[in-house]
Specification:
Layout (H helix, E strand, L loop, with lengths): L3 H29 L7 H14 L1 H18 L11 H65 L3 E5 L7 E3 L1 H7 L20 E5 L2 E2 L6 H8 L3 E10 L4 E12 L5 E10 L1 H23 L10 E6 L4 E4 L2 H6 L10 H5 L4 H15 L4 E9 L5 E13 L5 E10 L1 H58 L4 H4 L4 H25 L7 E4 H18 L3 E5 L5 E4 L1 H17 L6 E9 L2 E8 L33 H11 L3 E5 L7 E8 L24 E5 L3 H13 L3 E5 L2 H11 L3 E4 L8 H9 L11 E5 L4 H10 L3 E4 L4 H13 L1
Parallel strand pairs: 14-16, 20-21, 20-22, 22-23, 23-24
Antiparallel strand pairs: 1-2, 1-7, 3-4, 3-5, 5-6, 6-7, 8-9, 8-12, 10-11, 11-12, 13-15, 16-17, 17-19, 18-19
């Protein structure tokens, strides 16, 4: 609301501007004959009033100007009489003044809204930057945890164990670089590893090692002891366990092995066995000679508390026979306080019923140190009541044995702790991979959806401000990371499928160029293409475009500003040849043989991908080979650019009869289709509602499964779109509850699962639960609409 001062200012400006215009016109009228242009300066007064005061002051200025113009400048002058021409002129002026006022008022409001939208844009960009930094920190923390665990861990990345990696602790023990592939039967030749494994004196073959056995057979391998012999002659005893890793279909995809270095424990066990053997021999000789070596023999008369001892007392504890009082109490006074009470209670309880007694306890020697002893005795006399009166026994120093037992116990505890830590590390890794896919895909859906809508439809300023081209590019980079990881997993499991058809490579390459053109323009890189019609190939158009896109984006990524990227299509015999060359950083010659391997990367080379995982070129090679083709890489050296050449077999189709790949399809129409959407994320709900509304659908959005069940009968939707990961009740449980309803209450409603869980097992679980379609986030608006139209048509 305007206060009184502002109100007066606005209308004061309107009145003042009209009066000023009147005075100027009256002053200039004798010279310029302004009666021929009676409204000339009043238009300016109306514009000033509307710009400063808004709509109402502008209208007031219009009316005042009309009155002054009529009285002073229209015929007859200085008269309020109205004629038809006068009325017509005044009406036109008033209409034009109102239009000017409305236009200026709308312009001011639009400027204010633009400033507000720009402020909101800056806030959104800051939030996205914070989220990206947090995600990178989580990845770095997991990698640091894997390398910091002081346990020997080996990871087989495929069921045939062609690639086996080790963590930093294991690499240090093996004396090899951390990135070394330690597989015994790798997919490519490598130099012989500088160590060997033995068991019971026999060298173990590759398939007998715990990691490979677990991966190939899909079973756990537990409690295996093997010996590691390094090239430098060092020998280590390892205690190993291995567990298989399974893919979504339950097939082994690799394994994880944990090896504990038990060399010290084995040595302690040997020492313990030797000590026990010495004790056995000493016990056998106990009754043979009173002068037994390293043994105290005593004869204790309980009635008079007098005890006779051999000189073993001096050998074991340092006391001479003269220094030790010949009483049992002198001995009892030197027993450790923690052991005394339990020993006395146990001894009298046993000796009251039995003749033999044996116990272990600590006793103080002359050096004021406690030593462990084994005390064994036999009752040789009792009184008429059966109470012992005389005991003969021996005392042996067992400190070495106790020390060995303590060391063994400590080793076992450390081993158990290491096993728990290794299991936890493996569990954390698996949980991280599952969460990574979900957490990256969920926010990408509204970002990519809004961007696509802006490119195909017109929205008002408020909606347009919600979507940015920069957000689209960043979101696609994150989505590409997930797609690369999933493609790699499919390739490793042999689950990669292709939809084969005849494909025009010109259209495929042009589509890939359009995708990377924005990135090239941002770096002022010149994209030069030579794309003649050479024929068709048999392949998957989407995967072929992925091949070209990877090569182009890789070239642009590592080409400096103002550089050049060339792509050329040619026919070489019965082969189609695609060549992508750049003026970028190039590749070191010694790294060229490894450039297409997964997770292989090198600083300042074109093998580094956006996320630094080294997957792009490995995926390209697999896709090319799946199409029956070949790919090669060449580079003169660092800073001299690189060239990638793809060869694909042409199909036997004449050029003149090649049909166009472009298929014109009618845009789907969702008019009169009622769609019920459930998603706990507000951004996703709003995006889906806007997409479907643009295509004519009637949409209701809810936030939980309970709200779906509450509105199912009243809204009577023709189709349900449901998220999977939701609080309280997930999408699987929701569709199962709906399918349990009668058909009249919506039990047979068609349903689409739209989720960030994108694995094959997630697809199978969604279909088994009762969904008819499984779409993954981020989803293209056209793909979603066509899925709805296709499902509704059935």
């Amino acid at each position: 609301m305007l206060n009184q001062t502002q109100y007066l200012k606005r209308y004061g400006v309107a009145i003042a501007s009209v009066v000023i215009a009147l005075l100027l016109m009256l002053a200039l009228d004798p010279v310029l004959q302004l009666t021929h242009a009676p409204f000339l300066l009043f238009f300016g007064a109306v514009a000033v009033s509307a710009f400063y005061g808004g709509q109402n002051p502008g209208i007031v200025a219009t009316l005042l100007s009309a009155g002054f113009a009529h009285y002073y400048f229209l015929e007859a002058h200085y008269n309020w009489n109205f004629t038809l021409p006068t009325v017509f002129k005044l009406a036109l002026f008033i209409l034009e003044g109102v239009l000017i006022t409305l236009l200026i008022d709308s312009l001011c409001k639009a400027q204010a809204q633009v400033r507000k939208n720009l402020n909101q844009l800056e806030t959104n960009e800051a939030e996205i930057k914070d989220l990206s930094q947090a995600l990178q920190r989580r990845v770095d923390e997991l990698q640091a945890l894997f390398n910091a665990i002081p346990i020997n861990i080996a990871l087989a990345e495929d069921p045939d164990c062609h690639v086996v990696k080790v963590n930093a602790a294991y690499a240090k023990l093996l004396q090899i670089p951390t990135e070394t592939n330690v597989a015994v039967t790798p997919g490519v030749k490598q130099s012989q590893l500088p160590y060997k494994f033995y068991q019971n004196g026999r060298e173990l073959l590759g398939h007998e090692l715990p990691v490979e056995y677990a991966a190939k057979h899909g079973v756990k391998v537990c409690d295996v002891e093997i010996e590691l012999v390094r090239q430098d002659g060092a020998v280590f005893s390892l205690y190993g366990n291995a567990v298989p890793l399974f893919d979504e279909s339950g097939q082994p995809r690799g394994s994880v092995g944990v090896y504990t270095n038990i060399t010290d424990r084995k040595q302690a066990e040997i020492a313990l066995r030797e000590s026990e053997e010495r004790l056995r021999i000493a016990n056998e000789r106990f009754e043979l000679a009173a002068k037994a070596v390293n043994c105290l023999i005593y004869d204790w008369n309980l009635e008079c508390d007098r005890i006779e001892r051999t000189d073993g007392l001096t050998k074991l504890f340092g006391y001479s026979l003269a220094e030790a009082k010949p009483t049992g109490q002198w001995w009892v006074d030197r027993i450790h306080p923690d052991d005394l009470q339990s020993i006395q209670a146990q001894a009298w309880s046993v000796l009251a019923k039995e003749d033999h007694f044996s116990s272990e306890y600590r006793i103080l020697n002359k050096s004021n140190q406690y030593v462990y002893v084994l005390d064994q005795c036999i009752v040789v006399a009792r009184d008429p009541d059966g109470q012992p009166t005389r005991i003969v026994g021996s005392t042996i120093d067992i400190s070495d044995r106790k020390l060995a037992e303590n060391e063994r116990e400590q080793l076992l505890q450390r081993e158990q702790a290491a096993r728990v830590a290794a299991e936890r590390a493996n569990r954390v890794k698996d949980e991280f991979l599952a969460i990574l896919s979900h957490e990256l895909r969920s926010p990408l859906n509204p970002i990519l959806g809004w961007t696509k809508l802006l490119q195909t439809r017109q929205f008002d300023a408020a909606k347009t401000a919600e979507a940015l081209a920069t957000i689209e590019r960043n979101a696609k980079l994150q989505a590409q990371l997930i797609d690369d990881l999933l493609d790699t997993a499919k390739i490793l499991r042999g689950k990669l499928t292709l939809e084969m058809a005849t494909v025009d490579l010109v259209l495929v390459i042009e589509a890939a160029i359009d995708t990377v053109r924005t990135a090239a323009v941002a770096k002022n890189i010149f994209l030069h293409s030579v794309l003649p019609q050479i024929g068709q190939v048999l392949g998957d158009a989407t995967r072929l475009q992925q091949i070209v896109w990877n090569l182009l984006s890789n070239a642009i990524k590592f080409t400096s500003k103002n550089g050049r990227v060339n792509i050329q299509l040619a026919r070489i015999g019965d082969q189609a040849q695609i060549t992508v060359s750049d003026t970028g950083k190039g590749i070191k010659p010694d790294f060229l043989p490894y450039i297409f391997e997964s997770f292989r990367q090198e600083d300042a080379s074109t093998t580094r991908r956006f996320g630094g995982l080294g997957l792009g070129l490995a995926i390209v090679r697999e896709l090319v080979e799946a199409h029956g083709g070949t790919i090669t890489a060449d580079s003169p050296g660092v800073e001299l650019g690189s060239t990638f050449t793809v060869c694909l077999p042409l199909v036997n189709v004449e050029l003149e009869s090649q049909p166009s790949q472009a298929v014109l399809t009618q845009e789907p129409d969702l008019t009169k289709i009622r769609v019920l959407i459930v998603d706990d994320e507000p951004d996703n709900r709003e995006l889906l509602a806007v997409i479907l509304t643009q295509y004519g659908a009637e949409v209701m959005t809810v936030t939980s499964a309970m709200q779906v069940l509450a509105n199912l009968e009243s809204f009577q939707p023709h189709l349900l779109i449901s998220d999977i990961g939701m609080p309280d009740v997930d999408g699987y449980s929701l569709i199962q509850q709906i399918r349990a309803l009668p058909a009249a209450r919506g039990g047979q409603i068609p349903a689409i699962a739209l989720t960030a869980y994108a694995g094959e097992i997630d697809h199978e679980q969604a279909m088994a639960a009762g969904f008819q379609r499984h779409l993954t986030k981020p989803v293209e608006p056209e793909a979603l609409v066509r899925a709805i139209a296709d499902l509704w048509s059935k």
